[in-house]
Task: structure prediction
Amino acid sequence: MPYAKIIGSGAYLPTRVVSNDELAADLATRNIETSDTWIVERTGIRQRHIADPGVTTSQLATKAAQAALENAGVAAADLDLIIVATSTPDFVFPSTACLVQANLGAKGGAAFDVQAVCSGFVYALATADAFIQAGRAKTALVIGAEVFSSILDWNDRSTCVLFGDGAGAVVLQASEEPGILAAQLNADGSQMKILCAAGNVAHGKVVGDPFLRMDGQAVFKLAVTSLTKSALDVCEQAGVRFEDIDWLVPHQANVRIINFLGRRLNIADDKVVITVDSHANTSAASVPLAYDAARRDGRIKTGDTVLMQGVGGGFTWGSVLVKI
Ligand code: ACO
Result:
């Protein structure tokens, strides 16, 4: 059975950077109080990239995909599978993956979206791995992309300071050499209320509440517990000793969650990739953005064992263990 090997990655962030001070000044115009100090102390976030009005998830995803294809040395025509993980699709349908396929000038392969919120990239990666192992795809593009700024309530300081926009992508190819070693995905739908955007459009009208709502402390507790167990389970499944992991690339929600997780797993700080300070939480885009940053600056190298982890609304969580 072939492995699914990551042969390239790419990223795209909107050019507009909004610092905590700038965001605090904007909120102050609506009598909403926040500060750089509060945001940094509670979350580690210093800035976020925000897409201009009208910019869509498929546009960000296409740019990240082009960078990943170039890095992999793969032509769009060779892709037989495109999966986009997103909770902010351009349309109800067609899927964002179909829009990306058209933008890339690819045709004929399978293309679909995966919706698992901040766990979306890990879910999509595990799905592409299963396709490749089963012989149903040879060259896959997996993207995490979001315009999360479009579902934020900019009058709710407890959520609007936490998120940003962006896209990250990887190219996977069937290979005899080890690539994805193990994956495990989980969900607990009974926890849907602690993190949701429970609105939709029906009969031409918005029904429910279209904005993201969150019980931050409940999310914090569940994220730490579920990711710890998932990390240990995926290593056991792969027969990899935890101490042999070179890099942890966790979902970038909050530096306190990441530090807490690192301590529970006994992983040294310099083995954990952190981008939440400059990207904020980009939901499904956060793991591929962090992976791409660490690969491009030379931290993650060929031969490294990397543990990627996602956690988010649903409630969903999961891990993918990869030999690069
Ligand atoms: N600026 C200033 N004050 C604020 C802000 C803000 N932006 N937001 C909330 N506060 C206030 C609250 O109103 C509250 O005031 P009060 O004591 O007068 O009532 C006070 O700060 C404390 O609020 P808490 O919600 O208790 O703050 P907490 O210490 O829990 O920190 C946070 C909030 C950062 C969201 C935290 O709960 C957390 O890290 N949760 C993890 C969830 C997370 O990171 N989610 C990201 C998305 S989920 C995901 O990606 C998995």
About this structure: Residues 34, 38, 42-43, 118, 157-158, 161-162, 195, 214, 216-217, 219-220, 223, 251, 253-254, 256-257, 281, 311-312 surround acetyl coenzyme *A (CB under 6 Å). Residues 3-177 form a domain with the Peroxisomal Thiolase; Chain A, domain 1 fold (CATH 3.40.47.10). Residues 216-238 form the longest helix (23 residues).
